[in-house]
Fold each of these.
Amino acid sequence: MASEASGPDFSALQRETLAVRAAVARSQYGENSEALFLTSGYVQPSAAAAAARFAGDEDGFTYGRYGNPTVASFEQRLAALEGAPACISTASGMSAILMMCLGLLKAGDHVLCSRSMFGSTIKLIGSDLAKFGVESSFVSQTDVGEWKAAIRPNTKLLFAETPTNPLTEVCDIRALADLAHNAGALLAVDNCFATPALQRPMEHGADIVMHSGTKYLDGQGRVMAGALCASEALVEKTFLPVLKSGGMTLAPFNAWVVLKGLETLDLRLRAQSAQALALAQWLEAHPAVARVFYPGLPSHPQHELALAQQGGLGGAVLSFEVKAADADQARTRAFQVLDALQLLSLSTNLGDTKTLCAHPASTSHGRLTEAQRQAAGVSQGLIRVAVGLEHLNDIQADLDRGLSSL
Ligand SMILES: Cc1ncc(COP(=O)(O)O)c(C=O)c1O
């Protein structure tokens, strides 16, 4: 494979350019679009070269579980967009979190997380890792004092998601990075909602950026993918060995889809954020709506921080609560709004060009206990909308069908 031997100085290029030009590794055919290498194994030039490659003494692909040229292109391009030295990809966002925890933590270590994180993240860290002796605590997303008070001598990792799913709470990445580093720990940030189009956590001091590529990196709801961006040392020495033995490898086809998805990430996030802001403003004025959660609204508690951290944009996801007298009525009413949809998709995914609506309390956060759900602020009347690219009037009309019937 030939690479960009006499190409431009990539370190001098803008992010929009890197999204379409970084990590193009052309084969001898000179294809313009990135090639998809579907192979599980590689023919080695000699037994000695194979030995050197397996030992890590020589560059070269060895086996599909360990690496693939298309997968490597995706990793390099995502690293370029995040401003990260390196990146390693996985089969899904959750397997990226699993790889991070298996690589960094051992029995007796402590991990400190926001209690508003994605439901499966809370389950994985709070329950599954506990079986192997990893301690965890969950604190307020926004109160840095609570994070500080919860740090223990054995705290190895702070992990936050910003904005959070589904309440779009924003944490101060720089403050948490300082806290982690003063305690000799690392800070990891789930950048799934904002993506590098809006927010690059390493610029604010984070050590690891985690992605569910299933969301905006793909952007059209086609494949599952995940990734960790970090230093070369963390990627090569801490995460790659877990990938090699754990096998949570990203499939080449999926890598190719997300690689191409990155090319339109910036445009999509800007357009979808503009739509989300307009929809949030409309919902805030709707008589059937009790509250709207969207970082782009001045009513959002971390509005200023969000705009400063996210390039002035609120992102493409918002949530709102329907007005109701109690939790039972709230759930019935939320279901009524969702069941009245004719155009928008009732789907728990997010990050699609199609607008997706979901009831987090019974789906993405359905595996949590009632106490965990309440701590995460996920009420029965809450509806999450991942705003797509349909015309705003059509999105509003579809939501209004149910809302105006309440
Ligand atoms: C914020 C966040 N992090 C992680 C994940 C997990 O990603 P995946 O579904 O690709 O495993 C999700 C999935 O919805 C998510 O919303």
Amino acid sequence: MNPTPQIPVNAPFNEAQRLWLNGYIAGIISQANSESNPSESSKNKIKQRIPIVFASQSGNSQSLAEQFGDELEKSGFETPVFGAEEYENFDLTKEEFLLIISSTWGDGDPPDNAVDFWNHINSENHPRLEKLQYSVLGLGDKNYLHFCAMGEKFDKRLEELGAKRLTPRGECDVDYEETAEDWFNGVLKKLDTSIKKETTKANTDGYSKKNPFPAKVILNKNLNEQESQKQTHHVEFDLSGSNLSYEAGDVLGIYPTNDPELINELITNLNFDPDELVDDKKLKETLLHDYDIRNLTKDFVLSWFDKSSSEALGQIINNSSLEEYVAGREIIDLVVDYPVSFSEPKQFLSLLRKLSPRLYSISSSPNANIDEVHITVAKVSYESHGRSRNGVCSAYLADRCNKNDTANVFLQSSKHFKLPQDSSIPIIMVGPGTGIAPFRAFLQEREFLKPFGKNWLFFGNPHEGTDFLYKQELMAFKNKGILSKLSTAWSRDQENKIYVQDVMAQEGKEIWNWLNEGAYFYVCGDAKYMAKDVDSCLHKIIDEHGKINSESYIKEMKKEKRYQRDVY
Ligand SMILES: Cc1cc2nc3c(=O)[nH]c(=O)nc-3n(C[C@H](O)[C@H](O)[C@H](O)COP(=O)(O)OP(=O)(O)OC[C@H]3O[C@@H](n4cnc5c(N)ncnc54)[C@H](O)[C@@H]3O)c2cc1C
Ligand SMILES: Cc1cc2nc3c(=O)[nH]c(=O)nc-3n(C[C@H](O)[C@H](O)[C@H](O)COP(=O)(O)O)c2cc1C
């Protein structure tokens, strides 16, 4: 932009006249500029502040918050995006608007980063929020009993506190993008903005969840011995040419394909022709890539009943035994047990959910494995109601993803699960089973980051002889002094079951010493039992050996990001 013209110092005016004239000219030019360029004038306006708070464990709510934050900023609003753990940095009593995007974890619980925020907002003495207008978007999974429970809780609590709901709450199932966009569009409309949202184009921003990268499989091997009850696959993918990057602690998303045998069984039972075209795609291809043909939801059973009118199924629904019925059953059970005749495959497809990608903690450090990404996958397989069943993605990875095949992948950053910036800080890692994955990455990264602080790993699995994942590598880390301590729990090698939390308790004093030196504490793996047991063990260790209140100590650890979890 041209500088504003100034009255020359040698012009026939005194200093006061010259300053006044300069100001006058600047004023006229500024007005003319703003009239000819309204966007310039709007820059000077005070922007309406619309903060977004995300409560997120595996990053979905966070990425939506960041995406919507960007879009609101582009629409002329001031939109800071806060993680719920930062709740002390914003004051809801001073805000006019608030958007909350929250997932649900555990049994209807908040994600880790939002536990304190929820307790705060839900506390009896929380100030009233009459001035606030808000809207909540919940993320969840209809397979869980408490679907989107946290979205509902935040929504209700804000209403109780006197805040006004701007738009109805959004509730997203696993396939969340479209519902989230609809909710956001509703919010935008209500905010009275005429700005049209740019449509997101795949391909232009490189590889992403919407545009996954076809990564070649470099290696796929079972880490368990043959006699083991378990199958845990180490899978390596080639990322060269993708321009994708990640950090130790991030996760890899994978789009699976369905089991061809299950597809055949469905098609046969439904009397469809596998080669029939549905929207220019063969039915068998559509069923391979696009739909979840396995997981049975209560909604699916209700829709099925509409079509089948089976009395027996009606009884299950009327007797409130639906919950019990879906447990351990899949879509194929319904198709076989309560047949429905469809005039065209589209009718059946309309009942299905989209096949969603699964996330896996990355088990490699990018610095130690240029252009590669590794994951550690436990194959889900079990028997129920007389059938053997497999998890969609874990079985795809274990059984049908061979060397040189390609899999569609994307990277998702886990900002809440990262090594300390200062690599000399000691770390304690608790990762039984596939929980080992990010810690393999951490150890590789710490070796790369020399000099590194002390590293202590707690690992566990049923049997030392068959289930010691990455044994050679861990031993090598130990011999090189990278792994300062390795504590193992082999749950079934003796009569009494021993888990990682039991070994932690035995090492309580030493764990406290490490914490006292500033160690970071990481947990990865099973959320339902292990992470809870480890958490309560950590509380006991701090109470007993630190002789201080563990509740407030752990709260402080979380605030300082010294207690991080990647649990699922
Ligand atoms: C952030 C994050 C990180 C993760 N990291 C890893 C990782 O590093 N390694 C890893 O292996 N997984 C990891 N997971 C889990 C992974 O994403 C998948 O959920 C897992 O592989 C199962 O997916 P699937 O498609 O094979 O099974 P699905 O087809 O989704 O089936 C799983 C479902 O099967 C049912 N089921 C399972 N067992 C039984 C049983 N015994 N009886 C009855 N029903 C049963 C349950 O309903 C269960 O929800 C992670 C998840 C998250 C969110
Ligand atoms: C261990 C685990 C527990 C979950 N519990 C629930 C639940 O109780 N209710 C629900 O609706 N969704 C539940 N979900 C689904 C998540 O809310 C859903 O995957 C969401 O997209 C995650 O968003 P985030 O990445 O922002 O945390 C659970 C998922 C996992 C892996």
Amino acid sequence: MTTLFRPTYNGHPVSPTLLAFDDTDSPDGMCTTYLATLLIQELRDLDLIGLPRLVRLNPNVPWKTRGNAAICLTLGRAKGSGTVCGNIRGEPVRVHGKGTPVDPHEVLERSCRVLEKVAKFECPKTNPGIVASNFRPPPSLYWGAVREVVTLRSVESALRKTGATWRKYKSGRGVIGASAAMSWRPRDRTWEVIAYRSPSKIGSKRTIDSKSVIKMDKSTKWTFNNYDYDNPHIAITPSSPCPILFGIRGDSPSELLKARTMIRGEEPDRWLLFLTNQGTEDHLVNRRIGSLRPWESARLAAKVLSEPTTIQGGHVIVRVTDGHEIDAAFYEPSRGFRDVGRALLPGDEVLLCGSVRDEPRSLNVEKIMVRKLVKDIRKVGNPVCRRCNKSMGSMGASQGYRCKRCGAKLPASKALTKEFPRAIKPGWYEPPVASRRHLHKPLRRMSRGNIDNL
Ligand SMILES: [Zn+2]
């Protein structure tokens, strides 16, 4: 039981030195993942222990810069030559399985100098934070930041207990994401290989051969969100003017390294493989409608209450209930996904995943499982009198029918009806690739047994 003798600090086991940062980008440039490559360059006298981690946080917080991603690097001293997990300007980046910590204060000092040169301080939404520690903070910091809205004060108080050292810029809100990335202990996980552009090309149009992306998508088994076939579009390239050339996501790190070499077009300046929480659905909490909270993302079982309506802007709204009621909204940017909302009928049973909007309170549906469909039986005519063989007259809404010739009566339930086929089948439905969020677990991942049994 050697673990008993591992040094601890207030119960936290010592790890190699963790360096995490967040909120350095802006909507019109930089990218926190790019800073990871700059820091690896700067700290190349240290060894990388385990893959760099790219951690996505609560996508509903109103003050996020872009994708709400934070990064954690694990650094120290290792033995052996490690394995290649990236390349920066022709120099391979190597990763090691284990190593010993170094001085976190020195790592923080050196990293701050790099961050201060590149962070987009002029953007009002950019509030960088950087944390270094030889102890992994409690997992609650991750779960709080991916599912809820947490305060900087509560995070700093937790960091103090783990002996971490950190620096805040402007409001310093980035410390929340940085410490969340640092405290993430993967349950489910995926990988992303990200290739970056030469500094001279950043801001110009990206040249990526879409045929090579389709070929890569079709010839790999474990990648996802590569290409949007519904609305022909390359999904591995961002639309912002950031340093990323492309990023390929998947469940097999070795396959991603091969997939990277299949993309034709602009030559990357550098690339790096990340371990991530993307596609894990870690942000979803199981809730009943009555206990939904604003800014969170929930999974809830409900019954359709009303016929779907299409409101201005093309959004589809369906009223659902589980005792309490809420409007489930299928927004226009989800395009074909709205057809699922439109096809629902009162009485259908569904499982909805989505984000909670505060005012007016509604659920923005990001994924749906149709569990049970009611029969679509509609009235097609009045009943026929058995004696006279003539169509009977209605006595008013749900008042039944009466034969005009002989006076015979029939109840309303005897109307002529017909069962129509339903436009949807039970099962899962998701928006097209381009409208998915980073934490969205694609259906392509859900069918893989090894994922949920980690
Ligand atoms: Zn009759």
Amino acid sequence: MAQAKVVRARPGVRSGGRVLADALVAQGIDHVFAVPGESYLDVLEGLYLVRDRLKLVTCRFEAGAVNMAEAYGKLNGRPAVAFVTRGPGACHGSIGVHVAQQDSTPMLLFVGQIPFEETDRESFQEVDYRRMFQPLAKWVTQIDDAKRIPEIIAHAVDVATSGRPGPVVIAISEEMQKHLVDVVDIGPAAVSPPHPDPSALAKIQAMLSKAQKPLAIVGGSRWTESGRAAIRDFLVAHDIPTTAGFRRQALYDGTLSNFVGDLGVGSDPALVAKVKEADLILAIGTRLGEPVTQGYTLFEAAGGVPIVHVYPEAAEIGRVYRPALGIVSDLNVFAHAAAKLSAPKRVSWSAWTKELRALRLAGAAVPNYEGTLNLAQCMHDLSRLMEDDAIMTCDAGNFATWPPRFMNFKDGQRFIGPTNGAMGYGVPAAIGAKIAHPDKQVICFVGDGGFLMTGQEIATAFHHGVAPIILVFNNQMYGTIRMYQERTYPFHVSGTALTNPDFSKFIEAFGGHGEVVSDTAEFAPAFRRAVESGKPALIELRMNPDQITSRTTISAMRAAAKPKPAAKPAARPAARTAKKPAKKR
Ligand SMILES: Cc1ncc(C[n+]2csc(CCOP(=O)(O)OP(=O)(O)O)c2C)c(N)n1
Ligand SMILES: [Mg+2]
């Protein structure tokens, strides 16, 4: 914890802290999200010296900082960097590493480390990060020799961005940051990405020629705009009904006549039933993981429907489902190759595509709901009012199923959320997105539970002069868990009720713009006022708490629950308790 010496470096000779800052610049990294610690004072000094090229965003909570870096990586395909201090800082920040891992997002997390000579004494805040982050990160390392900083950071960026992208954690021992070294910076490598074998594309064509009911699932990370346009051209030209993986919905233009919905938590059961009828699955960039496959129920592991799985890393292909054809390829390269395939003048499955699109549109129509606030109508209004290139960020919870169901995202819009279901993601992600893209409108969807996990991070938005708009879906409960609770233990409310502050006053206390909406007609003017305020804004949506999802109510769940507890108060029917418990997210 010694103070950093002021470094008067000869040209070429720099402190480890300065070398590290220069190494980030050399790799094209332009944003660092951080909560400071005395464990990396020399890097803070290095960041000060490169402040004209690298923006340092000071955050209020490490979970916020790391989620901001994750959101940046998700939006831009290039890693941002988070810095946290040792021990407690690393523990707080670990959630963002888990998000980046499960969401396949490139990210670098640096953790200040204790002085090397104190290792294994359980020194103040000492943690072995290789062991701590091993199951959470794609790679974990520690820099103890300042001469190796450029090499290790260059490799970390390569690891984070290649194959299946993911987070890299780098501990930096304290005294190493002070050492004076004479090393050369290392820039990004020019690597030719994996290309699909031309014979594999011919096989796709042959498989399509035999299909009656093909279906595409688009997902994954590091799509470029031109890659997305190319895959869209291919799928439109072949009129293939296209779904998006969990929280990847904005990868595909929802206004197109072949977009048929998302496969994840809260998907339309009618779509899920149709996917089971498909006779060819084109899984393009998505992992065939638990949310997409509806808890591993959509396909058969050993065969069944033929699956073409296109993924940038071989290890993910066939991980659960044996594909009929696996293609290891960079997704954007694959998309451009697929777009060049000649499409038949007429395809035999157009009626199938129309049928699925009709289901999608029927599912997105505004139902009548009990109560004064119809959230489906609010989502339609939002679609109409928001910018065509807006960025939406999403937290985790039941509220998160309203936007994907009722909004068809436009081509230029982005929608990002944690596929690992991490609450507390939405607000930091919105701030990270707005700092990285200050010219874009940024809208956050978050529940009352998730908002009070990281909502204080809004201070970072004020500090850095950016103004996201936050929609808080307030049902006064941890609604998702209450839903599972009502399904498994009806009538017993245990640990899921919440007491909330006045959310609009919360943001007003920071100097922001607050709105409360409890009637459908109030939403559009409230949103307009929020935009016009130019300030960080929060719109509290006072929901009917009974409307537990867009498809059911607590009352309906209770009415369906048999037998009623009044009839059998204590003993729980064996069949119900023995049932496999529903997955909790
Ligand atoms: C960090 C974290 N903690 C706990 C959970 C478990 N969990 C999933 S959804 C949920 C409730 C979310 O409540 P809220 O944000 O109010 O949204 P709602 O479901 O009520 O719409 C909880 C506790 C989680 N997914 N992530
Ligand atoms: Mg809630």
